[in-house]
Amino acid sequence: MGHWWQRNILEPGKLPLLLALTAFVLTFLVTRVITRLIRAGKGPFGNVRAGGLHIHHVVPGVVLTVVGGFGAVASDRHGVAGAGSAVLFGMGAGLVLDEFALILHLDDVYWSEEGRKSVEAVVLTAALVGLLLAGFAPFGVNDLSQQELQSRGTVAASIAGNFLLSLIALSKGKARTAVFGVIVPLVALVGAVRLARPGSPWARRFYVHRPRTRARATLRAYHHDRRWAGPRRALQDLIGGKPDPRPVRLPDGRG
């Protein structure tokens, strides 16, 4: 374990990335726990206000991200300052992406249906950073044996193949499959070979003169969304909290 840690984390300089990812995930989880307690009216926490203005936690998140980012650029990644900057950057990124939907919509949609985009952004970001961390490419590792070079070359080729399949899945309108397919080869393969979603670049390019294929793709997308919408919403509710119900609009516009 110690040899693996030295060769694959410390020597390539991946410790700051590991610290940033850990701080990112923990900050998001802690923030969600606190906001859910505030929402339920429990615990000693409350919204931060200044002169009647609600200060969203994206504000300190931006400050931490800027400080941590510039600190990382100015410091040695192998030193204490680099590690500290990585932690600050991860904390800031966690706070910022926790309110990604607010930035996207320029509105306080934290507990609305649109607020689910924040959870999706955090999960996808953590997956991508985890991929960078888990990649055993030999960059930064010195004195590799021939067996290590061959092994790492095989892994690099495999990752490149998965990435190509993920690009195909992305062109078929399957963003989540594309992201997780980079990590899990089978997911990338399934996303690449199955029918594209209607309206995707792949469907617009290859299904134009194939009405039966378009119909099959539309029907498959409908059944897929109907089958997985419930479990996906349940997982998002578990991670980020259940959104507030949409207000009922009366026919005359009241409500």
Automatic annotation (TrEMBL):
Q: Which UniProt keywords apply?
A: Membrane, Transmembrane, Transmembrane helix
Q: Which residues cross the membrane?
A: 15-34, 54-74, 86-106, 121-141, 153-171, 177-196
Q: What is this protein called?
A: Integral membrane protein
Q: Does the keyword Signal apply?
A: no
